[in-house]
Amino acid sequence: MDKAALFITIKAFVHVSTAFSNPDRLLVEEIVYPPPADYRQVIQLVEQLDQETLKPLEQQLLKNLPNTYVFSKALAEQVIYDQRGLLPAAIFRPSV
C-alpha cells in the first residue's frame, strides 16, 4: 500500500477482502479485528524459511482459522489498517 501512496492521481485505496476473513465470529462488524499473527513476523518467517520448515508451523500460525486463504485475508486487512493514514482506504468484504 505504501507504493500506492506514490501515485498522486489515486483518490482512494479499496481492498477487496471477504466476509469470511473472520469465520470465528457470528457477527462481522465494520471494524478491523486483531489479526491471528503479526504480518511483519509472518513475512519474516516466509522470507527466511523454506516450505518444508514452514509447513509444521502452519497450524500454529492459523490458530482457529480454517485455511491459509482466510489467514492471508485477515493479515491483509491489518496491513491496510496500519497504513490507513497514507491515503483514504476502505476494506470491502463481499460474501459469496
UniProtKB/TrEMBL annotation:
EC number: 1.2.1.84
Catalytic activities: a long-chain fatty acyl-CoA + 2 NADPH + 2 H(+) = a long-chain primary fatty alcohol + 2 NADP(+) + CoA
Top-level taxonomic group: Eukaryota
Gene Ontology BP, a term: long-chain fatty-acyl-CoA metabolic process
EC class of the enzyme, as a word: oxidoreductase
Keywords from the named record: Lipid biosynthesis, Lipid metabolism, NADP, Oxidoreductase
Domain Thioester reductase (TE) intervals: 10-96
Keyword Iron-sulfur: no
Residue ranges of coiled coil: none
Gene Ontology MF terms: alcohol-forming long-chain fatty acyl-CoA reductase activity; alcohol-forming very long-chain fatty acyl-CoA reductase activity
GO cellular component: peroxisome
Function: Catalyzes the reduction of fatty acyl-CoA to fatty alcohols.
Official protein name in the record: Fatty acyl-CoA reductase
Annotated source species: Timema bartmani
Taxonomic placement: Eukaryota, Metazoa, Ecdysozoa, Arthropoda, Hexapoda
